[in-house]
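Standup notes
- DV: blocked on the single-chain target, sequence here:
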Amino acid sequence: MKIAITLNKDSELKPLEGAEILGVINADTKEIIRYQNPGYNISKELTMQAILGLNADAVIVKEKFLCPGSYGMSFGKLKYILTQYTNLNDILTNIDILTNHALDELEDSVYAESMNESGTCVDDDRPS
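- DV (later): unblocked, structure below
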């Protein structure tokens, strides 16, 4: 299984648009290939588009990592691995357990954001 992950330079998990690095983990070998995130500090949708281009089977997410737009883009194309781990080392150590809990869909409560009138994700925590 190829698993996408969004990280900062310190290998900590970050929400899609806050990740400097996109990684693809080979679950069998625990090897990771790293890519620069074209959506860094731009948008969750651009990051999800890049993830889909990497042909991953699943993506590791935490609550507030996705918005309805990025979720909609990936629904049916990726499985979701919801985790409480915060860094790459913990993910790699527990990759077998995590892959066994991959989901086809997520509860709506996982989304931290809503869509604005133009269909773009809006972070509920950002000042207007």
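- Follow-up: Residues 124-128 have pLDDT under 50 and may be disordered.
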